[in-house]
Amino acid sequence: MDQILTFLHEKYPKDNLTKISADESLEIQNQFPEIPEEYIQYMMKVGWGGIADDTLKIYSGPVYFDEIYGYESEDGEIILIGDDFSGYCFGYDTSSWQFGETSDDGEWEVENLNLLQFIKKRINLNE
Q: Fewest Cβ atoms closer than 10 Å to its Cβ: which of 83, 90, 104, 106?
């Protein structure tokens, strides 16, 4: 987490990220009790908004699939936490809490990465 934060501050100092408060964190955890802690920590330490010159956008909180795509996902109850400004979104399947990505036509694909690995890959930050 600290590696991402340092990288973003040094390479993209104009990124305007907003950290969530402890109260906002509790609201998300109350709504989604099994949401991965990594997501909560990311939101509290790094924050939401456009990152890496708008390579990715992290939403201010999880949104349901149908709020973005206008219809229910056939792949289960998907919540989305961000997008790539090109129609692809990413988030979690709430039945398994697996991290994944949706294509611009809404097709869900499980990623073999967690949130931090996904962000590092997308902003070209090697571990």
A: 104
